[in-house]
Amino acid sequence: MTNDRLNLIYDKTHGYCHLCHKKLAFINYGIYGAKGAWHIEHSKAKANGGTDHLNNLYAACIACNLEKGVLHTMTIRRRNNVTSAPLNKVKKDKIRSNNSVGGGFIGFIISAALGGPPLAIAACALIGAKIGYDNPVKK
């Protein structure tokens, strides 16, 4: 496995286990017992017809990967109270950007509806944008 391919798989979930969301350490790939140790995990197990295609490969902590075996990914995520894989940095930033625009607009509308002075309206819009940015919602 090349370092470039490992990086692509690790970065898909921003360095978190896609099954339990535990933080992983890139340098501890395959080192059982090390903090943040991880394996490449086949979302659809090879025994169930899964492939080595990049869209089927995810980073998973060793404990989750061994527990999963040939089970369905959603089965293990449910056990860990997780509903989806962590988002990578690019997707998080896009959602934050979209949320800040929406939050700013909502802040502006509320403040204007309450008849606030222009400075208060602008302040509410900025606060709404900040709240939207700091609280990304997965889409």
TrEMBL record:
Does the keyword Plastid feature in the UniProt annotation? no
Note the superkingdom of the native organism: Bacteria
Q: Does the keyword Nuclease apply?
A: yes
Q: Where are the transmembrane segments?
A: 101-129
One example GO MF annotation: zinc ion binding
Which of UniProt's keywords are assigned here? Endonuclease, Hydrolase, Membrane, Nuclease, Transmembrane, Transmembrane helix
> What range(s) does the HNH domain occupy?
17-69
Q: What is this protein called?
A: HNH endonuclease
Q: Which InterPro entries does the record match to this protein?
A: HNH, HNH_nuc
